[in-house]
Amino acid sequence: MQALEGAEADENLAKLAKALGHPARVHILRMLSRKEARVCSQIVDELPLAQSTVSEHLRILKDAGLVRSTQDGPRVGYCINFDGLRRLKALVAII
Amino acid sequence: MQALEGAEADENLAKLAKALGHPARVHILRMLSRKEARVCSQIVDELPLAQSTVSEHLRILKDAGLVRSTQDGPRVGYCINFDGLRRLKALVAII
DNA sequence: ATATGCAATCGTTAATCGACGATAGAAAAT
DNA sequence: ATTTTCTATCGTCGATTAACGATTGCATAT
Predict the structure, then answer these.
(1) A residues 24-63 near B, CB within 8 Å?
(2) What is the average pLDDT across B31-41?
(3) Distance from C-alpha of A58 to C-alpha of A51, rounded to nearest angstrom
């Protein structure tokens, strides 16, 4: 378990929160959380954004460790990174 | 109680998370949470930032509803806005 | 081998953010 | 009344972000 306090934890929480700091990314995360979507095109269909923009939002969520991409089968799939999400919840909970 | 789902909740969470999306602001929030500081100058002393920059971070936290300023007595004090913080925790918890 | 479909990356533009010093304002102390 | 102390605001600058269309890359299907 990583630290929940100190400068490193602050940076960690800031990075996670920053990734969450856009409505489209919150929406994407919720879709993935409820398994309403697994591939990029489904998310593009749902949001009023270009494919490239959605792809960029997914990259940001991946970079922050909130989302993982999987190649289960023929196509790239996305899913919640539960480790990252758990950590975010833990860090927020103790503020 | 406000909604925890839907577009409005997404925007709300994004706004709160964005405010939290900077290490200095996380640090400030933790200081206030632990009552290690109550006035701006104490925070300035603690952080390697100019007074104007700290003041701006405080403004962002206030705008997001995570911090309140109080004039209890002779001088302006800052404290956690527990309503906002509670809402953040609730919104994050259900992702 | 070629075509198709999906996602990532590139290049660009406008907008926003983060930081600072300087300045203003308000209250308390002298 | 003047000085001091503390915080907010202004103006500026460079860096980062958000968005898009266009292009590339990679599988699968034909």
Answers:
(1) 25-27, 29-30, 33
(2) 88
(3) 11
| Tens digits of residue pLDDT in A53-71 | 999 999 999 999 999 998 7
How far is it, in rounded angstroms, from Cα A70 to Cα A48? 25
Cβ-defined contact of B10 to A23 (cutoff 8 Å): yes
Domains located in chain A, CATH noted: 7-93 (1.10.10.10)
Give me the helix-helix angle, B7-20 and B51-64, nearest 10°: 160
Assess B1–A contact: CB distance below 8 Å, yes or no: no
User: Which among A74, A76, A16, A71 is positioned nearest to B95, based on CA atoms?
Assistant: A16
Nucleotide at minimal C1' distance from the B47 CA: C19
Predicted confidence (pLDDT) at residue B55 exceeds the cutoff of 90: yes
